[in-house]
Design brief:
Length: 413
């Protein structure tokens, strides 16, 4: 009996040791998981900086791993604003060379219709700073608009390489999460952007991000037959036709926390760690610089991107071969993107007419008589072009925005 008791006690001791060893291995595997478990924390909707997905913010999957958010009833988009009434909207732009006038016109369009206060983060070459100060200090919207001017800065050890990527200063946008460390969320736009409805509306998409999404952009093309990435790219790209980074909404807190999957190492890398290795690997295969790097990054992390419709980033490609942005046809253009210099030549007179109208508008003038009506007359003159044939999409939302602005003023008075 004693021998049996000793054997039983020995077996029991071995069982307890095995159990303890199992628990220790489980804890060790959790500690060694990529990102040390921090990836899960960043994706938790209850984690700091995260926002729960608002009702109606579902995304329809289009293509392999490509998410496309479909939004109807845009007038209901103010739900997020009502729950964040005093939140300041942060808008960033990078201006170099001859982009002063274009940048100021973009800022003017943002000011005209926006409701909540705006904070502009303007990254510009040193010789442009005084001009920006002179112009912006003359804007009659004290209290509603603040701005900060920054020099163009890149990581010291690789500054020359980043400066020559694509266009001068273009890759500065990649470093905004690392420079603006105290900014939680940010809307980055190219200088050739024009807002035809309040910035508040695109800002409200932050409230529609699910727990894994860190940024929002629009597709590069709606029609694959004329798509650039699906026909010519020599690197991975997001979805069916790639994404365009001219309008990029970012939850920068999440971007700074996230550990990104990549094709360079099995270890996930943070934003500041992944940029230079990506450039070194793909610099001979990329054409559009920083936008290509973003496409590569979100190809490997598709769950992190929220895709909004083409009317939030409407470019000449949406009309020069015939209209192919259905959302704009139905509801009008929300954000106009005059890439390829179309605001300054005669190739796309429809785009140029909108730019000239906003550039020449004087703050405080009647928007109907000083902006809308003269613009419509100019747009009618462009009907010999493909974009001109659908000129009504260029003023449809602008008309609504003016009407809503006057309704708010009337209600406020």
């Amino acid at each position: 009996m004693r021998r049996f008791a000793r054997v039983a006690l020995l077996c029991l001791g071995c069982g307890v040791c095995s159990l303890l060893y199992g628990f220790s291995q489980l804890a060790l595997s959790l500690e060694q998981e990529p990102g040390g478990g921090r990836e899960r924390q960043a994706r938790d909707p209850a984690a700091p900086g995260a926002r729960r997905q608002a009702s109606g913010g579902r995304a329809a999957v289009r293509g392999a791993g490509a998410g496309r958010a479909v939004h109807r009833g845009v007038n209901q988009i103010y739900d997020y604003m009502e729950t964040h009434p005093s939140e300041k909207m942060h808008l960033a732009v990078v201006a170099c060379g001859e982009r002063l006038e274009e940048t100021v016109t973009m800022l003017r369009s943002a000011i005209i219709f926006s409701i909540k206060p705006l904070q502009f983060h303007i990254f510009a070459e040193d010789q442009l700073h005084e001009s920006f100060k002179d112009i912006l200090d003359g804007f009659p919207y004290e209290g509603k608009v603040n701005y900060t001017l920054y020099p163009i800065t890149f990581p010291t050890e690789s500054a020359a390489e980043w400066k020559k990527l694509f266009k001068p200063c273009a890759s500065q946008r990649l470093f905004l999460p690392l420079i603006l460390k105290n900014v939680d969320s940010l809307l980055y736009v190219d200088t050739d952007i024009l807002f035809l409805r309040p910035v508040d509306d695109i800002w409200s998409f932050l409230g529609k991000f699910n727990s894994t999404q860190i940024a929002a952009m629009a597709p590069e093309h709606e029609e694959p037959r004329i798509g650039w990435y699906n026909r010519f790219a020599r690197h991975p790209y997001y979805g069916v036709t790639g994404i365009n980074s001219g309008v990029m909404l970012m939850n920068m807190t999440r971007i700074r926390r996230k550990y990104f999957k990549n094709d360079m190492t099995p270890v996930r890398l943070q934003w500041g760690e992944i940029l230079m290795p990506l450039l070194k690997k793909y610099k001979l295969n990329i054409t559009w610089g920083d936008q290509d790097l973003l496409n590569i990054m979100f190809f490997h992390n598709p769950e992190s991107l929220y895709v909004f419709p083409c009317q939030w980033n409407y470019r000449p490609d949406h009309c020069i071969y015939g209209s192919n942005c259905k959302e704009a046809e139905e509801e009008g253009i929300f954000i106009l993107h005059g890439n390829r210099g179309v605001y300054h030549d005669d190739k796309q007179p429809t785009f140029r007419a909108v730019y000239e109208a906003i550039k020449n508008y004087s703050f405080g003038d009647d928007l109907v008589h000083s902006l809308l009506q003269p613009l419509e007359l100019e747009l009618r003159k462009t009907m010999h072009t493909y974009c001109g044939k659908v000129y009504k999409v260029f003023i449809k939302q602008l008309t609504e925005s003016i009407r809503d602005l006057y309704a708010r003023k009337s209600k406020g008075s």
